[in-house]
Amino acid sequence: xxxxxxxxxxxxxxxxxxxxxxxxxxxxxxxxxxxxxxxxxxxxxxxxxxxxxxxxxxxxxxxxxxxxxxxxxxxxxxxxxxxxxxxxxxxxxxxxxxxxxxxxxxxxxxxxxxxxxxxxxxxxxxxxxxxxxxxxxxxxxxxxxxxxxxxxxxxxxxxxxxxxxxxxxxxxxxxxxxxxxxxxxxxxxxxxxxxxxxxxxxxxxxxxxxxxxxxxxxxxxxxxxxxxxxxxxxxxxxxxxxxxxxxxxxxxxxxxxxxxxxxxxxxxxxxxxxxxxxxxxxxxxxxxxxxxxxxxxxx
Length: 299
Description:
about 20% strand
Protein backbone atom coordinates (compact mmCIF):
# COMPACT_ATOMS: atom_id res chain seq x y z
CA UNK A 1 0.00 0.00 0.00
CA UNK A 2 1.32 3.46 -0.90
CA UNK A 3 1.47 5.69 2.21
CA UNK A 4 -0.60 8.84 2.11
CA UNK A 5 0.83 12.30 2.76
CA UNK A 6 -0.75 12.58 6.23
CA UNK A 7 1.11 9.45 7.35
CA UNK A 8 4.33 10.86 5.92
CA UNK A 9 3.85 14.11 7.90
CA UNK A 10 3.44 12.15 11.13
CA UNK A 11 6.58 10.16 10.35
CA UNK A 12 8.56 13.35 9.65
CA UNK A 13 7.37 14.97 12.90
CA UNK A 14 8.44 12.02 15.05
CA UNK A 15 11.73 11.64 13.16
CA UNK A 16 12.63 15.28 13.77
CA UNK A 17 11.32 15.69 17.31
CA UNK A 18 12.13 12.16 18.56
CA UNK A 19 9.06 12.14 20.78
CA UNK A 20 5.37 11.28 20.39
CA UNK A 21 4.31 14.09 22.70
CA UNK A 22 6.45 16.70 20.91
CA UNK A 23 5.21 15.47 17.54
CA UNK A 24 1.66 15.61 18.83
CA UNK A 25 2.07 19.23 19.91
CA UNK A 26 3.55 20.09 16.54
CA UNK A 27 0.74 18.35 14.64
CA UNK A 28 -1.94 19.43 17.16
CA UNK A 29 -3.12 15.88 17.80
CA UNK A 30 -3.05 13.58 20.82
CA UNK A 31 0.26 11.70 21.40
CA UNK A 32 -1.63 8.41 21.56
CA UNK A 33 -2.99 9.11 18.08
CA UNK A 34 0.56 9.77 16.86
CA UNK A 35 1.66 6.43 18.33
CA UNK A 36 -1.16 4.56 16.58
CA UNK A 37 -0.42 6.29 13.28
CA UNK A 38 3.27 5.36 13.52
CA UNK A 39 2.45 1.73 14.37
CA UNK A 40 0.08 1.52 11.39
CA UNK A 41 2.63 3.20 9.14
CA UNK A 42 5.36 0.75 10.15
CA UNK A 43 2.98 -2.12 9.40
CA UNK A 44 2.27 -0.67 5.96
CA UNK A 45 5.98 -0.20 5.24
CA UNK A 46 6.79 -3.71 6.46
CA UNK A 47 9.69 -2.59 8.67
CA UNK A 48 10.28 -0.95 12.07
CA UNK A 49 11.06 2.73 11.45
CA UNK A 50 11.81 3.74 15.06
CA UNK A 51 13.63 2.24 18.03
CA UNK A 52 12.08 3.34 21.31
CA UNK A 53 14.40 4.12 24.25
CA UNK A 54 14.31 6.21 27.45
CA UNK A 55 15.74 9.07 25.36
CA UNK A 56 12.86 8.93 22.88
CA UNK A 57 12.23 7.64 19.37
CA UNK A 58 15.35 7.10 17.25
CA UNK A 59 15.26 6.21 13.57
CA UNK A 60 16.24 2.70 12.58
CA UNK A 61 18.28 2.06 9.42
CA UNK A 62 15.03 1.65 7.51
CA UNK A 63 13.72 4.88 9.03
CA UNK A 64 16.88 6.73 8.00
CA UNK A 65 16.46 5.54 4.41
CA UNK A 66 12.80 6.53 4.37
CA UNK A 67 13.58 9.97 5.82
CA UNK A 68 15.51 10.97 2.70
CA UNK A 69 12.53 10.17 0.47
CA UNK A 70 10.03 11.71 2.89
CA UNK A 71 11.91 15.00 2.91
CA UNK A 72 12.04 15.01 -0.88
CA UNK A 73 8.30 14.41 -0.97
CA UNK A 74 7.81 17.27 1.49
CA UNK A 75 9.86 19.59 -0.71
CA UNK A 76 7.90 18.56 -3.80
CA UNK A 77 4.59 19.13 -2.03
CA UNK A 78 5.68 22.54 -0.77
CA UNK A 79 6.89 23.50 -4.23
CA UNK A 80 3.61 22.43 -5.79
CA UNK A 81 1.59 24.46 -3.28
CA UNK A 82 3.76 27.51 -3.95
CA UNK A 83 3.36 27.18 -7.70
CA UNK A 84 -0.41 26.81 -7.51
CA UNK A 85 -0.67 29.73 -5.09
CA UNK A 86 1.20 32.00 -7.48
CA UNK A 87 4.15 32.85 -5.28
CA UNK A 88 5.29 35.55 -7.74
CA UNK A 89 3.25 37.87 -5.51
CA UNK A 90 3.63 38.41 -1.79
CA UNK A 91 5.19 35.76 0.43
CA UNK A 92 2.84 33.85 2.73
CA UNK A 93 2.85 31.00 5.21
CA UNK A 94 5.27 30.58 8.10
CA UNK A 95 9.06 30.83 8.05
CA UNK A 96 11.12 30.20 11.20
CA UNK A 97 14.59 31.69 11.61
CA UNK A 98 17.10 30.49 14.20
CA UNK A 99 19.69 33.01 15.32
CA UNK A 100 22.14 33.75 18.15
CA UNK A 101 20.53 36.15 20.59
CA UNK A 102 22.69 39.14 19.68
CA UNK A 103 21.48 39.07 16.09
CA UNK A 104 17.96 38.14 17.17
CA UNK A 105 17.69 41.03 19.65
CA UNK A 106 19.42 43.88 17.86
CA UNK A 107 18.95 43.18 14.13
CA UNK A 108 16.18 40.76 13.26
CA UNK A 109 13.24 42.72 14.76
CA UNK A 110 13.85 45.66 12.39
CA UNK A 111 14.72 43.52 9.38
CA UNK A 112 11.79 41.13 9.79
CA UNK A 113 9.42 44.00 10.49
CA UNK A 114 10.22 45.50 7.10
CA UNK A 115 9.86 42.14 5.34
CA UNK A 116 6.55 41.56 7.13
CA UNK A 117 5.14 44.93 6.07
CA UNK A 118 5.87 44.08 2.45
CA UNK A 119 4.35 40.60 2.86
CA UNK A 120 1.32 40.89 5.19
CA UNK A 121 0.35 37.21 4.76
CA UNK A 122 3.77 36.00 5.92
CA UNK A 123 4.31 34.84 9.52
CA UNK A 124 7.95 35.15 10.62
CA UNK A 125 9.10 33.29 13.73
CA UNK A 126 12.42 34.23 15.36
CA UNK A 127 13.99 31.61 17.64
CA UNK A 128 16.76 33.22 19.70
CA UNK A 129 19.02 30.65 21.33
CA UNK A 130 22.69 30.82 22.37
CA UNK A 131 23.60 27.61 20.58
CA UNK A 132 23.90 26.00 17.15
CA UNK A 133 20.59 25.08 15.50
CA UNK A 134 19.85 21.62 14.15
CA UNK A 135 18.27 22.26 10.76
CA UNK A 136 18.00 18.55 9.97
CA UNK A 137 15.43 18.29 12.77
CA UNK A 138 13.64 21.36 11.43
CA UNK A 139 14.22 23.44 14.53
CA UNK A 140 14.16 26.25 12.00
CA UNK A 141 13.71 26.69 8.26
CA UNK A 142 17.00 28.56 8.10
CA UNK A 143 19.55 29.76 10.62
CA UNK A 144 22.02 32.58 11.05
CA UNK A 145 25.40 31.47 12.37
CA UNK A 146 28.65 33.17 13.36
CA UNK A 147 30.70 30.56 11.52
CA UNK A 148 30.18 28.27 8.56
CA UNK A 149 29.42 24.66 9.57
CA UNK A 150 32.42 22.39 9.08
CA UNK A 151 30.29 19.43 8.08
CA UNK A 152 27.88 20.75 5.45
CA UNK A 153 25.71 17.63 5.32
CA UNK A 154 22.82 18.65 3.05
CA UNK A 155 23.29 22.29 4.02
CA UNK A 156 24.13 25.38 2.02
CA UNK A 157 26.02 28.28 3.55
CA UNK A 158 26.11 31.88 2.36
CA UNK A 159 28.10 34.68 3.96
CA UNK A 160 25.83 37.62 4.79
CA UNK A 161 28.09 40.35 6.17
CA UNK A 162 30.94 41.23 8.52
CA UNK A 163 30.36 43.09 11.77
CA UNK A 164 32.49 44.72 14.47
CA UNK A 165 32.80 44.19 18.21
CA UNK A 166 34.43 46.50 20.76
CA UNK A 167 35.40 46.54 24.40
CA UNK A 168 32.90 48.80 26.15
CA UNK A 169 31.71 49.93 29.55
CA UNK A 170 29.13 52.28 30.98
CA UNK A 171 30.31 55.86 31.42
CA UNK A 172 29.46 55.65 35.14
CA UNK A 173 31.74 52.61 35.55
CA UNK A 174 34.66 54.29 33.79
CA UNK A 175 34.36 57.42 35.95
CA UNK A 176 34.60 55.40 39.18
CA UNK A 177 37.49 53.13 38.19
CA UNK A 178 41.16 53.56 37.23
CA UNK A 179 41.90 54.86 33.76
CA UNK A 180 42.54 52.24 31.06
CA UNK A 181 45.42 52.95 28.69
CA UNK A 182 46.26 49.42 27.52
CA UNK A 183 44.92 45.88 27.65
CA UNK A 184 47.19 45.21 30.64
CA UNK A 185 45.23 47.76 32.65
CA UNK A 186 42.09 45.63 32.33
CA UNK A 187 43.45 43.06 34.76
CA UNK A 188 42.33 45.20 37.64
CA UNK A 189 38.81 45.62 36.32
CA UNK A 190 35.66 43.52 36.48
CA UNK A 191 35.19 41.67 33.22
CA UNK A 192 31.89 40.46 31.75
CA UNK A 193 31.70 37.65 29.20
CA UNK A 194 30.55 34.16 28.32
CA UNK A 195 30.52 31.21 30.71
CA UNK A 196 33.68 29.47 29.42
CA UNK A 197 32.28 25.95 29.14
CA UNK A 198 29.10 27.21 27.43
CA UNK A 199 30.76 28.96 24.49
CA UNK A 200 29.07 27.10 21.64
CA UNK A 201 31.24 28.51 18.85
CA UNK A 202 34.96 29.32 18.96
CA UNK A 203 34.20 32.61 17.19
CA UNK A 204 32.52 33.79 20.41
CA UNK A 205 35.59 33.36 22.59
CA UNK A 206 36.28 37.10 22.42
CA UNK A 207 38.10 37.68 25.70
CA UNK A 208 40.54 34.83 25.11
CA UNK A 209 41.43 36.35 21.74
CA UNK A 210 42.22 39.62 23.53
CA UNK A 211 44.32 37.80 26.12
CA UNK A 212 41.75 38.38 28.88
CA UNK A 213 41.00 35.08 30.54
CA UNK A 214 39.29 36.16 33.77
CA UNK A 215 35.52 36.73 33.86
CA UNK A 216 33.87 38.14 36.97
CA UNK A 217 30.29 38.08 35.68
CA UNK A 218 29.38 35.51 33.05
CA UNK A 219 26.33 34.46 31.06
CA UNK A 220 25.67 32.21 28.08
CA UNK A 221 23.50 35.03 26.67
CA UNK A 222 25.03 38.03 24.90
CA UNK A 223 21.93 40.05 25.79
CA UNK A 224 22.46 39.41 29.51
CA UNK A 225 26.10 40.43 29.11
CA UNK A 226 25.08 43.59 27.26
CA UNK A 227 22.59 44.62 29.94
CA UNK A 228 25.15 43.96 32.68
CA UNK A 229 27.69 46.18 30.91
CA UNK A 230 25.06 48.85 30.39
CA UNK A 231 24.18 48.67 34.10
CA UNK A 232 27.78 49.47 35.04
CA UNK A 233 28.76 46.02 36.27
CA UNK A 234 32.04 45.94 34.37
CA UNK A 235 33.74 45.84 30.98
CA UNK A 236 32.90 43.46 28.17
CA UNK A 237 32.73 42.94 24.44
CA UNK A 238 29.78 44.61 22.71
CA UNK A 239 28.51 44.36 19.15
CA UNK A 240 29.03 47.57 17.22
CA UNK A 241 25.46 47.35 15.96
CA UNK A 242 24.19 47.24 19.57
CA UNK A 243 26.05 50.37 20.72
CA UNK A 244 23.44 52.88 19.43
CA UNK A 245 20.80 51.36 21.74
CA UNK A 246 22.88 52.30 24.82
CA UNK A 247 24.08 55.91 24.46
CA UNK A 248 25.80 55.83 27.86
CA UNK A 249 28.18 53.09 26.78
CA UNK A 250 31.72 54.10 25.87
CA UNK A 251 34.31 52.18 23.88
CA UNK A 252 37.29 51.11 25.98
CA UNK A 253 40.59 51.86 24.20
CA UNK A 254 38.53 53.28 21.33
CA UNK A 255 38.75 51.71 17.89
CA UNK A 256 42.29 50.47 18.65
CA UNK A 257 40.83 47.28 20.10
CA UNK A 258 38.17 45.70 17.91
CA UNK A 259 37.21 42.31 16.54
CA UNK A 260 35.64 41.40 13.21
CA UNK A 261 33.18 38.55 12.85
CA UNK A 262 30.73 37.42 10.18
CA UNK A 263 27.14 36.27 9.92
CA UNK A 264 26.30 33.29 7.69
CA UNK A 265 22.92 32.15 6.39
CA UNK A 266 22.60 28.37 6.74
CA UNK A 267 19.84 26.57 4.86
CA UNK A 268 18.64 23.11 3.87
CA UNK A 269 20.17 22.27 0.51
CA UNK A 270 16.80 21.10 -0.83
CA UNK A 271 15.20 24.46 0.00
CA UNK A 272 17.25 26.07 -2.76
CA UNK A 273 14.61 24.72 -5.15
CA UNK A 274 11.84 26.70 -3.48
CA UNK A 275 11.32 30.20 -4.85
CA UNK A 276 9.56 31.27 -1.65
CA UNK A 277 12.56 30.36 0.51
CA UNK A 278 14.99 31.90 -1.97
CA UNK A 279 13.09 35.18 -2.03
CA UNK A 280 12.89 35.31 1.74
CA UNK A 281 16.59 34.43 2.12
CA UNK A 282 17.52 37.20 -0.30
CA UNK A 283 15.38 39.78 1.53
CA UNK A 284 16.73 38.65 4.90
CA UNK A 285 20.38 38.81 3.82
CA UNK A 286 20.01 42.21 2.18
CA UNK A 287 18.12 43.55 5.20
CA UNK A 288 20.82 42.36 7.61
CA UNK A 289 23.60 43.91 5.52
CA UNK A 290 21.80 47.25 5.44
CA UNK A 291 20.93 47.19 9.15
CA UNK A 292 24.49 46.34 10.29
CA UNK A 293 25.88 49.12 8.07
CA UNK A 294 23.33 51.62 9.37
CA UNK A 295 23.83 50.85 13.06
CA UNK A 296 27.62 50.65 12.89
CA UNK A 297 27.67 54.03 11.15
CA UNK A 298 25.56 55.53 13.95
CA UNK A 299 27.92 54.49 16.79
